[in-house]
Amino acid sequence: MRKARPDEITVEFGVDLAFEAGAVITISQASCHLTVTVSWKDDRSGHPQSGAGTDGLS
């Protein structure tokens, strides 16, 4: 990740727990998720930025 030099990294971690108790049997479940989002804001691409002279009137 250091060589890629992203402008922004977002990490989302979630845990879901579920328990169901009966007379004799107890059921439990657990799950988790991890989402990592990496983004770059590269102004050196040669493409005009949004709204910067793209309408042909400039």
Structural summary, described in words:
- The chain has 58 residues and is mostly beta strands.
- The chain is built from no helices and two strands.
- It has a two-stranded antiparallel ribbon with strand order 1-2.
Give a concise summary.
The chain is mainly β. It has strands at 8-21, 26-39.
Please outline the helices and strands.
Elements: E1 8-21, E2 26-39
Antiparallel strand pairs: 1-2
Give me some keywords for this one:
58 residues; mainly beta; two-stranded antiparallel sheet; 2 strands; 48% strand
Q: Pick out the low-confidence regions.
A: 46-55
Q: Count the helices. How many?
A: 0
Largest sheet, if any?
2 strands, antiparallel
Tell me the span between the first and last alpha carbons.
38 Å
How many strand segments?
A: 2
Radius of gyration: 24 Å
The SSE string, one letter per element, is: EE
Fraction of residues in helix: under 10%
